[in-house]
Write a structure and sequence with these properties.
58% helix; mainly alpha; two-stranded parallel ribbon; 2 domains; Hypothetical protein af1432; 13 helices; 2 strands
Length: 274
């Protein structure tokens, strides 16, 4: 028996490695094995079952606390610009659903894509309000500052050792399929698949959300926007996935994601008294 005092039995080699890494990263000491010793008695089996249940409960609690921290962090960032409040949470949900429709089935990969979408604008923490909230057009030098935010956000998550899919979305979410995006000017399939999925989800949310210069449009308008820009801004294959989905699915997701958010007018700061 290991110093951990507990044994976790996982037959699948890949799953066993993933669980070992997760428990180790969260400071949980446990002996993870492929099978039980042949001579394990009934009392040992009961003890192992009880210990496994405790560890799984602890794992779920840690994951829930982690998710809540990420969501609160991005909600606070969204509040810097009330015009896009709730964007990160909504586009994270859209990205998860679109990735699943595109054929990604591994739950951990889908969750990493959701987290990457949630954190995609983390680098904007380093952008001054004088630029981020500027009411008029940005000067060329100000655009240069804005274009740094993917790399800044990627540096942030790299330091906390988040997984590849998360970092790819943060770093590449402004790349374009035709190679004219930033920060690297990646083209076509050189752009990570999860970032190409996010680009479509991001535009769907942008088109159907309130903006200071226009009212929200419907999902048919979002679909038209994607079709017009397929092969330019967007991966045509991912656009086809969206086109093949019932628009009622997106209406439902939007309702479920935004129904608890305060009305837009309540988020706006009152005009200062002069």
């Amino acid at each position: 028996m290991s110093k951990a005092g507990a044994v976790l039995i996982v037959e699948d080699d890949k799953k066993r490695a993933e669980i070992c890494a997760f428990l180790s990263d969260n400071g949980i000491e446990v002996d993870v094995r492929k099978s039980l010793p042949e001579q394990a008695d009934a009392s040992e089996l009961r003890r192992l079952k009880k210990e496994m249940a405790r560890l799984l409960r602890k794992s779920r609690e840690l994951e829930e606390a982690y998710d809540t921290t990420l969501e609160n962090f991005m909600a606070a960032l969204d509040l810097r610009d009330v015009e896009t409040y709730g964007h990160s949470k909504t586009v994270a949900r859209y990205s998860h659903i679109l990735a699943e429709a595109a054929g990604i089935r591994e739950p951990s990969t889908l969750d990493h894509i959701r987290k990457g979408a949630l954190l995609h604008d983390a680098g904007k923490m380093a952008i001054p309000d004088s630029i981020l909230k500027k009411p008029g057009p940005l000067a060329p030098k100000e655009w240069d500052v804005i274009r740094r935010h993917p790399a800044l956000g990627y540096g942030l998550v790299r330091d906390v050792k988040l997984v590849r899919e998360v970092g790819n979305i943060i770093l590449c979410h402004h790349e374009r399929y035709d190679g004219t995006g930033y920060p690297k000017g990646l083209k076509g399939e050189a752009i990570p698949f999860e970032a190409r999925i996010f680009a479509v989800a991001d535009t769907v949310d942008a088109v159907t959300s309130h903006r200071p210069y226009r009212a929200p449009r419907d999902f048919r308008a979002a679909r038209r926007e994607l079709e017009v820009n397929a092969g330019g801004q967007f991966d045509p294959g991912v656009v086809d996935v969206f086109r093949g989905m019932d628009l009622a699915v997106w209406e439902k997701i939007r309702f479920e994601t935004t129904r608890l958010m305060p009305p837009f007018d309540e988020l706006r700061s009152p005009s200062p008294t002069r």
